[in-house]
Amino acid sequence: NPVHFRTEKNDPYYYIDTIKRRIDEIKKNRLTKTSYFKNIEINADWQPELDSLKNKLEIKRKKGDIRTKTLESDIKDQQKKIGQAEELWKFYELYQTKMEKNHYIDYNDMINSVLAKFDSTPAFLEKIANEYEYILVDEYQDTNKSQNEIVFNLTKNLKSENVFVVGDDDQIIY
């Protein structure tokens, strides 16, 4: 049962869209459990930020400063954020288990299965890359990491140099 993905009124359904979007991000970035939790541990926005907030609070208390309400609230928010991230991985594993049990795949699974096949079978990658005379990528600004890996793998193994990429600088959001 979720603890951190509940509202103050204990609504377990409020965060469903958020959970689904975050699961998509895990898949798009091809994260493993190890890399996911390592990111929480070392990325400045996660555990290091919580540690920093706790240190600031400790310093204030040692100085006798009683104005700590905002800092305590920030710590509580950061703990919830980290708790949600840890809980999210459990949702991801449950989602994957149910998908596999029912023999379903989603869009990101399709992309990742192509990448897995490319990784495991270089001859397959070379065959696919050279099956076509031209490769065109439209709306390149909308590609994610996994989709980008497909493009890079194909172009790296392409015998011709017939790659054309179209993107709109005004639509780039990253």
Question: Nutshell version of this structure?
Answer:
The chain is mainly α and 174 residues long.
Per-chain topology:
Blueprint: H1 16-28, H2 33-42, H3 47-62, H4 69-101, H5 107-120, H6 122-129, E1 135-137, H7 145-156, E2 163-165
Parallel strand pairs: 1-2
Helix pairs in contact: 1-4, 2-4, 3-4, 5-6, 5-7
Unreliable stretches, pLDDT < 50, 5 or more residues? none
How many helices? The count is 7
Shape: elongated
Beta-strand fraction estimate:
under 5%
Order of helices and strands: HHHHHHEHE
The major pleated sheet works out as:
2 strands, parallel
What structural class do helix, strand and pairing data support? mainly alpha
Q: What is the radius of gyration?
A: 22 Å
Strands side by side in the biggest sheet = 1-2
Write down how many β-strands occur, each being a DSSP E stretch of 2 or more residues: 2
Arithmetic mean of pLDDT:
92
Distance between the termini: 34 Å
Oligomer: single chain
| Amount of helix | 55-70%
Can you give a write-up of this model?
The protein has 174 residues and is mainly alpha-helical. 61% of the residues lie in helices and 3% in strands. The chain contains seven helices and two strands; from the N terminus they run H-H-H-H-H-H-E-H-E. A two-stranded parallel sheet has the order 1-2. The two termini are 34 Å apart.
